[in-house]
Amino acid sequence: MNKFYLTTAIDYVNGKPHIGHAYEKILCDVICRHFSQRIDDVYFLTGTDEHGIKIQKTADSREITPQQLCDENSSSFQQTWADLGIEYSDFIRTTQERHKKTVQKIFKKLVENGDIYKHSYKGLYCSGCESFLNARDLTADGLCPDHLKKPEEVFEENYFFKLTKYKDAIIKHIKDNPKFLQPDFKVNEVIKQLENIEDISVSRNKNSVSWGIPVPDDEEQVIYVWIDALSNYITALGYDTENPSDKFKKYWPANVQVIGKDILKFHAIYWSAILMSLGVELPQSICAHGWITIDETKMSKSLGNVIAPADILKAFELQEPDALRYYMVTSASFGRDGNYSDEDFKEKVNADLANNIGNLLNRSLNMLVKYFDGEIKSEFISNDDCILNAGNEAIINVQKLFDGYQIAEAANVIVEFANTVNKYVADNAPWTLAKEGKMKECGIVLYNVLEAMRKIAVMLYPYCPNISGKIFKQLSLEKSIKYSQIEQNKLQAGKITEKEKISPVFPRMDSEFATDKKKVK
Ligand code: MSP
After folding, report:
1. Cis peptide preceding 253, ω within 30 of 0
2. What separation in Å is there between the alpha carbon of 260 and the centre of ligand 1?
3. Domain membership of residue 483 as a residue range
4. Strand pairing partners for 215?
5. Looking at ligand 1, which atom is closest to the CA of residue 229?
């Protein structure tokens, strides 16, 4: 692999970011940081989805223009990602000129290819999904199953896209490429949807929705928000129907497009068909993650249980986002639903980060100071086979798990390795060795533990970049996180620390989280 291009879903800006949005972006940041430890060219795209009826209506209700609403909330998303340590390569906003002009070209190309036709249509539109729904998809009370709102009846003459033309080709692509849709338990769901697929409306009349990109050569219509939004994955790279940019040629097809399970249909089916029509290669993989609930309940404004990531950091007085990042991505296996609860958060990060990893480093460094004035003598540099093998195995397994986007499982491997090292310390009791005057043996144990900590810092980096950085610092090592250099950068003989330099890399979290959850507007 010589490049790695990852995209996230782009968030609607009718509200502020909550921890469901944050879950996805943290997951993607962790994946990108991990791959940046293995290859040089990682490109990470995220952004905001700014058109459509939902945004128009929210702006109207607040008596501001849609653009003002977009500017305000897009900034909020960007600020939140900065607070969470999310380091993307590009942030695309669908109201940017670079995007709008290309979306119009894409629409034109679909017309030229004979894939668009005009058609009068009567349907049920859910503004929450920004999508037409079939009567058979509704709940027994006639509500959208995802948003529990009654869809609006719409009667319009719109442009339609010949989705049915691509049905067989998409089914074939899914069957021929087992990695295309992940996790694989999602495949049947998509195939079933494909079997019932119909052509889709790809424009709305300006009288119903004015906040959108105009259909080229038809002032009465705006382009359907999902066609607009999905195109961001290539418009951001400078795709052009006639003359694609070097960046597009370099990064497309995406290695992975990460999205929530609720929008898999749009990506696996609509997006694949658009790309096929444009003659553009399909992404290598579309990965659908599960949803985050709060205290086992779906987040919703009406329940008032929507939590903003910043409120969690504030309530627990966390200066750095590492603990929240770690907790969020380890709360569920990829594709499965996860849950956030204050108690669980505190318990998990105290157990793994403060006790298992943090305490191990702290105790070992303190012993090194107490017995050896903070110095690793050259005679201590002798590997314990068990620890060496366990560390090397963990390094291989973490990479293998990341290859399959098994992020929570990879974190377990790190924790397991730290458990093994803790057990090694308990079994070899360096404090007893010191008491018995077996100073060389004691020093060897401490060297092995600290060398293992270095490996832990490398593997932990994507989840907890700040904690990882502190571990390197306390070991007096240059931060070196590349997997290819893990052998060369071993801990060397010499004085590495003194009493004043040692502090917990992650102090236990004890503060009580205000039970009164902050409401996201
Ligand atoms: N704008 C569309 C995506 C267009 S992509 C071309 C959209 N926006 S969204 O704001 O509703 O959701 C953005 C992402 O956040 C989606 O992948 C969605 O699944 C995810 N999540 C929203 N709420 C979530 C949870 N409660 N839990 C986990 N992810 C959630 O859909």
Report:
1. yes
2. 6
3. 341-501
4. 218
5. 6
